[in-house]
Amino acid sequence: MRQLFRYYRPKEYFWLLAALVFVFFQVYFNLKLPDYMSEITQLVETEGSRMADIRANGWEMIKCAFAALMMAVISSYIVTKLSATLTYRVRRQLYEHITKFGMAEMNHFSESSLLTRSTNDITQIQLFLSMGMQLMMLAPVTAIWAVTKIWNKSWEWSALTGLAVVILLAVIIILMKFVVPKFKIIQKLTDALNQNTRENLIGLRVIRAFNAEAYQEKKFEHSNEDVTNVQMFTQKALATLQPIMYLVMYFLTLGIYLIGANLIQSAMMADKLSLFGDMVVFSSYALQIIFAFLMLAAVFMMMPRAQVSAARIKEVIDMPLSIQEDDFDGETDEKGTVEFKNVTFRYPGAEEPILKNISFKIKKGQTFAFVGSTGSGKSTLIQLIPRFYDVTEGQVLVDGVDVRSYRQNALYDKIGYVFQKSMLFNGTIRENIAIGEKPCSDEQIQRALKIAQADDFVARKSGLDTPVAQRGANFSGGQKQRLAIARAVAKDPEIYVFDDSFSALDYQTDAALRRALKENCSSATVLIVAQRIGTVLNADQIVVLEQGECVGIGTHKELMETCDVYREIALSQLSKEELEHASHA
Ligand SMILES: Nc1ncnc2c1ncn2[C@@H]1O[C@H](COP(=O)(O)OP(=O)(O)OP(=O)(O)O)[C@@H](O)[C@H]1O
């Protein structure tokens, strides 16, 4: 929690100090009220008092109460503003750090946990700062001031007040012992609940199609019940605090009046009136002290929850980045080359390597295709080029330079990566295609759409201004793929990486798209991961992967003669005649 305060700038500490001064005056006015009460009581009890005096004291009381209210409003305003500023900055830093996360960090936390941490956990902190900071100032000032006011009155009254405070503290400590450990559990369970809700919403159509509502609902109910049970426990425990507090307060008032009655009875006639006034004042101050301790208790109740949240946020902010960028700006003599040198790769935490000792070099303008059975490591291999993961052994070089030496942006500038699952963002087609830092004119976008065979269906909709729903929900799978390809083309990169990006296209569109790419982007290097032999057989070189090992590199013709795995894949898709024909074409 303490570390959160480093997000404040020096001038904001001044505002904190100002809030403290306002709180100080608020307490001053609050604690002046019983003095006037005592004055009024004495005037009422004294024979021959003037009504005007009583009214004047009453008027002073109103002014004091109003002044205390004003001070409270101003200090709340300052504290609320300061807490909102701090949480804004924490949220921004959290977001900026998360955007630099590699896949390893994303897998470590999971998306839903990062979402909970960026929203719910930050709200906990904001709640604590806005309410807690105020109470933290108000409580000690009130308690200390009120104690000094009653210090020199009867010791019996003071002892009784002390006893009430001790009882309250004991109750609070016992409650905290039970409740605080549950806060950590609540945040963890909220993570799980969010994950469940998110999964259910994203997979709603699958759930319906498979009549799996009952099953998913049961899973959801389970998470929901877990959170509810723990929350019920904490709420029930905390709910006992209020009645106990009132009980202690009533007994304290009763005790003060009982002691007061005895004192008045045994006092001289002349002292009786002033003792009565003291009793009224004392009971007011004693209640203020009890309230102050309750406020502190509220702070201590809120603090552990906020501490848990702060620790969860800190865990993300302090997470070292597995991908540390270097400072090479990407200016190279060699252009458009990709080289793998004895690359071995193991996923973080996995025992077995997924890629074993892979080596090849792609020259500028060449097309390399990667084939192999599912799970053979094709996607993993190409993910090493933009450094989504770092190699375990060996080197990946782009334009002759190790990818680890690049500034991330400089490396990304060279690569147009089209993912296996096309990702479109809420907005328009124009915004989705001209998404990068480089400015992109409408002509460039239209050209990219044409190459990606997407111009027809975009024109049939509302052109570049066609709205795109979240995740591109208003487009078909093939349309989404074409838009994702157009996004890469508009970037005009040196190197294209297509991770099974033609799978949702029909054969005709697939062929037309590859032809258009060849005609318009002939100088670009292309890497294609594909399942269809038809997509890869015209590639300059085909790399065949089998369980993470490279079992063949060559042209379609060469591999048909030399590589059993390739021949098997090819023959499972096309007949001998078709393959013969394709090889000669
Ligand atoms: N994030 C990950 N963490 C751990 N293992 C992973 C991860 N992603 C993939 N794998 C494993 O790595 C292996 C290779 O997966 P990869 O996605 O590279 O295969 P692929 O050849 O592209 O398959 P497909 O053709 O089905 O897309 C698989 O066994 C998979 O289980």
UniProtKB/TrEMBL annotation:
* Keyword Metal-binding annotated: no
Query: The ABC transporter domain covers which part of the protein?
Result: 338-572
Membrane topology term: Multi-pass membrane protein
Key words of the record:
ATP-binding, Cell membrane, Membrane, Nucleotide-binding, Transmembrane, Transmembrane helix, Transport
Annotated ABC transmembrane type-1 domain residues: 17-305
Instruction: Please name the GO terms that the record assigns under molecular function.
Output: ABC-type transporter activity; ATP binding; ATP hydrolysis activity
What is the official name of this protein in its record? ATP-binding cassette subfamily B protein
The listed locations are: Cell membrane
- The coiled-coil regions, if any, are none
- Report TM segments: 12-29, 65-84, 127-147, 159-180, 244-265, 285-303
This protein's GO cellular component annotations are:
plasma membrane
The organism encoding this protein is: Catenisphaera adipataccumulans
What PROSITE patterns does the annotation carry?
A: ABC_TM1F, ABC_TRANSPORTER_1, ABC_TRANSPORTER_2
